[in-house]
Amino acid sequence: MLKIKENRILKDSSSINGTETKQENIEFQKELILISYKCRNAKYKKAKIVFTVENNFNEVEIVGQEYIIPYLNIQQSELSTYNKWIKEMAHKMYELNADGYYIVTIQKRDKLTIGLKEKRWIKKLRKDLNGLMGYLAISGNRYSYIYWNNEKMILENNKKIDMLLGLNAKKETMNKPALKICIRCELDLVKLMKEIAVSNKFSILIGIDKNNQIKLIQEVYKGLLNLSNNQIEAYIQNISTSSNSKKIYIFTMDKAVFERIENLESISNYKLICIAYQIIGGNIYILNEWEN
């Protein structure tokens, strides 16, 4: 079982409402670190919602993407939880001016087939949240895909990912660190999501509201560090506003990301906290300063 060990004391980020003790807050941060670790580890199944908009060139542009909270299986949740999630996603689409979205699952299984249970959930989701363009399941070098043609659901199971066709995902993520990337077909989105999942150039950003509820989980690309302080500030401020987050955590295993975000913490207009960690011998070690 994975354990968290501290060879440096976690920062006291202090609760917005001032009711938490320091130790309670540290335990909460440890929970967030485990979530971040699972988001970046290939053995854990994860799901994302990818928001899109059709631009003036009739291209589909990604305008936002985030994890469906890992410990919340939205397919099996209570109706009240599901309805709340639907309302939050509708609000985020409005904030991002998105007119569509994809659901993407990344998992590890030998035979990648979308079953009857998943199809029923996708039909319900399409009815409850307007704009669903497709459902993708990715595992290794294969994917399955659901889309619609004249209101008829089309399912393509267990297709091979052709890395020679379509989007150069590695180049696109380097050139557009905010990940606002145009896609032309489902294969482009598959390759982009696969690149994000396996690349070591991503850290995890988690937005928290005033009640310490998770509002957002998404990747932060290392290339973002090439932007100016003002540009990074504006990027994170937009994330904070659109997700109604009062605190932004960035969890990273990258020294450059840790040091750059630490320098931004003191000048931020909102609560920005960067926590570095390393994985050694099956344990997570938290760092408050980087040791070479």
Quick synopsis:
By secondary structure, this protein is of the alpha+beta class.
Tell me about this structure.
- This protein is of the alpha+beta class.
- It folds into 2 domains: 3-40 and 230-287, no CATH class; 46-198, Cytidine Deaminase, domain 2.
- 33% of the residues lie in helices and 32% in strands.
- The chain contains 7 helices and 13 strands.
- The strands form 2 sheets. A 7-stranded mixed sheet has the order 7-6-5-4-2-3-8, with helices on both faces. The protein has a 6-stranded mixed sheet with strand order 1-13-12-11-9-10, with helices on both faces.
- β12 (271-280) and β13 (283-287) form a beta hairpin.
- α4 crosses α5 (186-198).
- The two termini are 27 Å apart.
Total helices: the number is 7
Instruction: Quickly give the CATH architecture of the largest domain.
Output: 3-Layer(aba) Sandwich
Number of domains: 2
The low-pLDDT segments are 7-22
Record the SSE blueprint.
Layout (H helix, E strand, L loop, with lengths): L2 E4 L15 H19 L5 E9 L5 E9 L10 H18 L3 E7 L9 H13 L3 E8 L2 E8 L2 E9 L8 H7 L6 E2 L2 H13 L3 E7 L5 E8 L7 H15 L3 E6 L2 H11 L5 E10 L2 E5 L5
Parallel strand pairs: 1-13, 4-5, 11-12
Antiparallel strand pairs: 2-3, 2-4, 3-8, 5-6, 6-7, 9-10, 9-11, 12-13
Helix pairs in contact: 4-5
Which key features would you list for this structure?
13 strands; alpha+beta; globular; Cytidine Deaminase, domain 2; 7 helices; six-stranded mixed β-sheet; seven-stranded mixed β-sheet; single chain; 292 residues
